[in-house]
């Protein structure tokens, strides 16, 4: 009778166990890879990126790689810096306020995706960018710390002893740029004066949203520039209703977030597949309780209960992308001048 030696047993184990592992590794290495640039809160631990990656990879026989960058403004800046040599196949996280600048870069290709039947508060027709969510900018506050809440932008600015705020830099942050446009929509040529009046109560200006919101939660400011949907996170995850969004009588600036295919991508068909997937229920159902925004297409299950508790502005303000493209630099310079005097 032949008795297997330890060496033979080791060889058998390697053949029966190691071989499938090696085959699996080989098959995974053969899978096409899609690289998507996005902002850090989307791809981070608490964002929807992990669920979306899992759901997309289940159908695409590919690997989805997120590259997290701190905010939308930095996304576009990095893409322009890298140019056609970029590793990005798709950029997800730009918005209507950056669309004209992004289109003018020549770095994006037509998407070829059917965008009919979206649940946006405005008609959508664009051959380069596909929306994936939307929301209103707002100042979020802690109702247990702030008892007198401004009911309008005029109230916020006029009260010299009013709440302190933390905002984001419009050169690197989409909410920061949104605030500049919001002020311009309300005050027009008087926006610079409004900024000067508000400046003494601005605790700091951060590069991106995550840093600003973290400072607010740490109690370093009374209010933070964020979204009307931000309280839904606290309601759902923390069962906490103390955080609210102040609703202003003048109306609120809107943001529609978009994605685009990079023209130099070596995976254009896979990129288009991802863009189509982006409007599917598998993607859109991850948005409300993942990115804490309104989905571009309402999921089959509808919105989570917490969204029914949110305050909604009576008036929506949206600066046309073409106007933003033409005036963005001038209006940011106006903000900079007001903030440095």
Set down the secondary structure blueprint.
Layout: H1 6-29, E1 33-39, H2 40-43, H3 49-60, E2 63-69, H4 72-82, E3 90-95, H5 99-104, E4 108-109, E5 129-142, H6 153-158, E6 165-168, H7 174-187, H8 191-198, E7 202-206, H9 209-217, E8 223-227, H10 230-237, E9 243-246, E10 252-262, H11 268-278, H12 281-284, E11 294-295, E12 316-317, H13 321-340
Parallel strand pairs: 1-2, 1-3, 6-7, 6-8, 10-12
Antiparallel strand pairs: 3-10, 4-10, 5-8, 5-9, 5-10, 5-11
Helix pairs in contact: 7-13, 8-13
DSSP summary, beta strand count: 12
> What integer value in Å does the Rg equal?
23 Å
Number of helices: 13
Task: Give the helices and strands as they follow along the chain.
Answer: HEHHEHEHEEHEHHEHEHEEHHEEH
Terminal CA distance reads 94 Å
- Overall shape: it is globular
Structural class: alpha/beta
Percent helix: 40-55%
**What portion of residues belong to β-strands?**
15-25%
What does this structure look like?
- By secondary structure, this protein is of the alpha/beta class.
- It has helices spanning 6-29, 40-43, 49-60, 72-82, 99-104, 153-158, 174-187, 191-198, 209-217, 230-237, 268-278, 281-284, 321-340; strands at residues 33-39, 63-69, 90-95, 108-109, 129-142, 165-168, 202-206, 223-227, 243-246, 252-262, 294-295, 316-317.
- It has 13 helices and 12 strands.
- Strands 1, 2, 3, 4, 5, 6, 7, 8, 9, 10, 11 and 12 form a 12-stranded mixed beta sheet that branches.
- Helix 7 crosses helix 13 and helix 8 (191-198) packs across helix 13.
- It is globular, with a radius of gyration of 23 Å.
